Amino acid sequence: MQRPMNRRGFLQLGVNTLASSGLLATLGTFERALAAADTTGYRALVCVYLFGGNDAFNTLIPRSTDAYNQYSQSRGSLAIQRSKLLAINPHSSDGNQYGVHPSCKGIQTLFNNGNLAFVANVGSLVRPVTRAQFLSGTADLPLQLFSHEDQTVQWMTGRSDSPDRQGWAGRIADLLATQGYSPKLSLNISLAGTNLWQSAGSVLPYNLGKNGAATLDIQGFPGGAGRVDAYLKLLQQAQADPSLMAQQFALTETRGLELGKMINDGLGSVPGFKTKFPATTLGGDLHLVARMIAARSQLGAARQIFFVSHPGFDTHDNQLSQHAELLQVLSDAVKAFHDATVEIGADQLVTTFTASEFGRTLSSNGDGTDHAWGSHHFAIGGAVKGQDIYGAMPNLTINGPDDVDTGRIIPTQAMDQYGATLARWFGISGSDLDLVFPNLANFDKRDLGFMS
Amino acid sequence: MNALKRAVLLAPALALSLAACGSSQPLGGGAVGGKADAARFLTQATFGPTLEDIDALTASRDYSAWLDQQRAAPMSLELPYLQSQNKSSISQPDRLEAWWRFAVTAPDQLRQRMAFALSEIMVVSEVSSLATHQDGLAYYNDLLIKDAFGNFRDLLQDVTLSPEMGHYLSMWHNQKPNPDIGIRSDENYAREVMQLFTIGLVQLDLDGSPKLDGNGNTIPTFTQSDVANLARVFTGWSWGNGTSDADFDNVDGDWTVQMQAYEVHHDENAKVIIDNTPVPAGMQAAPELKLALDKLFNHPNVGPFIGKQLIQRLTTSNPSPAYVARVARVFNDNGQGERGDLYAVARAILLDPEARAAPTPGSGKIREPLLRPSHLWRAFHATAPNGRYDYLQAQGNLAQSPLGAPSVFNFFRPTYRPLGVVAQAGLVAPEFGISDESTIIVASDELRRVAMTYTGSQGASSGASDAILLDLTPWEDRAANDPEQLVDDLGLVLMNGAMPKSMRQTLIDYVQTIPVDQTDQRVAELIYLIVSSPQYAAQG
Asked: B529–A231: do the CB atoms touch at under 8 Å?
């Protein structure tokens, strides 16, 4: 069933057509053999999505006197005290010293141990934008800048210029499937419910419950066997129901039942971790991801992409205390998760990274911040070329050279480049990266260099 | 290839061939005006039909009269009910009990159902600092109930000035800019009131399709500058019942009265809001807010933008553009020159030919999870020994809870398109946003517990004073003497008479394997299998 498909075909095929093999035949003129998917070894990408828009300018902060004063001036009452910053020591220097938010002890340790890289001032972009272009209205801008929903879609699709509804992790799964990699359990696994990032044209993502796969308890009745048979028969009949909604529901439930058993069997077969995970939702989710990775052989997985969410970053008010708590949870959880991958000898095989729809205004609205644009991110893992900051740190002056308005900083690196760097490590190579990130060609660097 | 994979792969072809039959092809569901259509109408308009309601509506054959009765029915309001219990404070379980009580028993069903729909558009949630202000959440739900048949303009103002929305989207305590210390006005409410509550992001035609410019691109409804200016309009609001300027700064206040203006914190400078609308300098907070909300209310997008979402909450996920246009036209003018009459909009949605036409492969929607227990409890006249409707399992087991969305973007988005047969047919199915491989299974187990908790049942919980017990006794005769009739009657009240033949046969075969003297078990088993089935989950 998984016939090789040519690149052009992959680009053109959308949700409506991928299932139609007739269309593939018509593309015969353009067909040429593709390399088989490179799925040797095992690799996992773990996206920690910071819903709401993380204030990364209060996560990674300059410590040098002049740069700190500029930061402090712009941030006013939201500035973090210089003496409280946790120092980080990058290998390379742009002339300034930096620190992380006082809640980020785990992140500091990971960075200084060489397991974490910051990627500076990333955002949704169609192509590079200058301040002059923005202010004169001539910039080619992402659609609906500063809207949660739209910038989330763009981070997830890599299509800042289009209402395309195909996520780039989904496109990776589709691409690998056309190259012959289609494991029984989807490559794409979400611990945060349905999401656009992992959904593209053909490969269905799998949504995992908070405690592993959900299982059905239907044998409570003395007439047991008959009930189970009837339940499953209705489920099967519904797959051919006249209603498409009923069909979709039945197929989803059937998939959940069948994969759930395999997953729970796999999870049950691996020993527990010595690493202690924090008792937070994020800590619990990353614990489960670590268990899924530990069970990778039992699950038959050579490549996995996990989606985990950490919501609450829309700090329009009461930011100082809220943000400190959010970062504490994040820092503690990703530190434990990395330690767990070390414990099972998989740290070289797993890369964790942050995503978030946008950064926040440098200026305050009284006790919080509003929606902005560019923002710092980080990647963690043994394969990350850590202890460095990749890309230029922006000038944090309000109405300065990098600001479009009240401290909304223009990103200098596109999320497409950030994603492509991760995807390349994951095994997507050469021009295949342009299939996953159609706008990658609009930027000079195809790889931001933070992955080995 | 295993059986599951084969089923997944074959399904699209089946779907496409069905879709090719044409949308006018009826698939059963009975004649319009018959019992099946009455049941379907009540499924769309209430928290679930009962046999009695179906019979009454079928006998009258007058949906219009039913709608007018619903309009005239006395309002069931949460806060007065909760306050009548004389507790020192209102807890979350108390508020949820009030919601379920009204969902199951309130006579003003359509009003409650509209309020529920509105609560998923103008979202506030207890998944926030509002968790500790349950009285405020009841007040907010009540304002939706009060305005559900009123005018959208009043609803917009009541939502805007509620302390709950004030806190949820931070208009409460929003202040005029202070350039000396680099403080701007908070843009949160200004953006979302436009993006989510009134006009949306792009200009729409009357039928809900986006307008396109000469290059084929959508046209934004507002700019960032419009947001920043509107943010300054929404300055100076804090607790109601304030007596001095100092009350503006109070950290706590009365969560059950509208916010009031504190002019000293209001930005009186001139502004320019959406569509280059000038707001002259020197205006006070309230008249300025009125000017801005009037402007939004009168924007041509509101009818199609809000109308389409209300259609999606009541009748179908994928209304035709013509259906949206018909509803939007009623929003724009109720026939007596009034714009924004929500009762007229509800009527238009429910009486529309598309809502009343027989189901097609792509019509209808997934039932919202909260509407499944309410349906069972209504259809089987459920009561608890303690007389209450204490039910706290929805958030954990149904992935939905009254005023409990994860964010202002609700439990799911109106544009959500799950990968699979729905997407292949070019359709959206918002409720699949919370119906995935895990949540469907967890919900199925929960519905088993709800169905198996009936008077006389053996379940562990059924002896508890708060167990909400289905009354199956009226059905037991049929269980013993006429299982086929039992299945058909359950198919009417639970599935609007549209149970597929294959499903009917499976149920008839199964029920007869249960000993004939276990009549209650026979009924309960059937109810469980029906409400946990995909065929039931899809509301045609």
From this structure: yes
| CB pairs A-B closer than 8 Å | 273
The answer to whether residue A19 neighbours chain B at the CB level (below 8 Å) is yes
Q: How far is CA A107 from CA A102, A113, A389, A447, in A?
A: 10, 10, 13, 23
Compute CA B510 distance to the chain's CA centroid, rounded to the nearest angstrom: 35
- B99-124 CB burial, b ≥16 within 10 A, e <16: bbbbbbbbebbbbbbbbbbbbbbbbb
Q: pLDDT for B384-440, tens place per residue?
A: 999 999 999 999 999 999 999 999 999 999 999 999 999 999 999 999 999 999 999
Phi, psi of B246 (to 5 degrees): -65, -25
- H/E run at residue B260: strand B260-261
- Residues 6+ away with beta carbon under 8 Å from A104: A59, A86, A327, A328, A330, A331
Give the separation between CA B129 and CA B136, rounded to whole angstroms: 11
Q: How far is B80 from chain A (nearest CA, A)?
A: 32
- The number of residues in chain B equals 540
| Contact present, A437 and A158 (Cβ < 8 Å) | yes
Question: Hey, how many other C-beta atoms are within 10 angstroms of the C-beta on B505?
Answer: 14
Task: Give me the count of residues in chain A.
Answer: 452
The residue-averaged pLDDT of B428-453 equals 96
**Cα separation values, B234 from A365, A415, B104, B408, Å:** 13, 34, 38, 18
* Nearest CA-CA partner of B104 in B404, B448, B471: B471
DSSP secondary-structure letter at A435? H
Contact A245 B538 (CB under 8 A): yes
For residue A260, give how far its alpha carbon lies from the nearest alpha carbon of chain B (Å). Answer: 8
So what's the ipTM on this one?
0.93
Number of C-alpha atoms within 13 angstroms, CB side, residue B396? 6
The amino acid at residue B8 is V
Residue A255 to residue B174, Cβ atoms within 8 A: no
Query: Position B393: which residue type?
Result: Q
Contact B530, B536 (CB under 8 A): yes
Q: Which of A73, A238, A317 comes nearest B533 by C-beta?
A: A238
By C-alpha distance, which of B44, B47, B197, B42 is closest to B112? B47
Residue of B nearest to A319 (CA): B170
How deeply is A246 buried, as exposed, middle or buried, from its count of CB atoms within 10 A (0-12, 13-18, 19+)? buried
Number of other CB atoms surrounding residue B332 within 10 Å:
18
The span from the CA of A186 to the CA of B437, in Å, is 12
State which H helix or E strand residue A206 sits in.
strand A206-207
Question: Within 10 A of A329 (CB to CB), how many other CB atoms are there?
Answer: 18
Residue B473 has pLDDT above 60, yes or no: yes
Residue B13 has pLDDT above 80, yes or no: no
Cα–Cα distance list, B36 to A429, B49, B277 (Å): 57, 11, 51
Burial B25-58 (b: 16+ CB within 10 A, else e): eebebbeeeebbbbbbbbbbbbbbbbbebbeebb
Whether residue A234 and residue B195 make contact (CB cut-off 8 A), yes or no, is no
Res. B19: pLDDT tops 70: no
CB atoms inside a 10 Å sphere around CB B143: 27
A227: amino acid identity, one letter: R
Q: Which of A77, A237, A255 sits opposite B4 (nearest CB)?
A: A255
CA distance A452 to A338: 17
Global pTM value: 0.90
Query: Are A237 and B503 inside 8 Å of each other by CB?
Result: yes
A165–B417 C-beta distance less than 8 A: yes
For chain B, positions 376-415, list CB contacts with chain A under 8 A.
Answer: 399, 406-407, 409, 413
Q: How far, in whole angstroms, is CA B83 from its chain's centroid?
A: 25
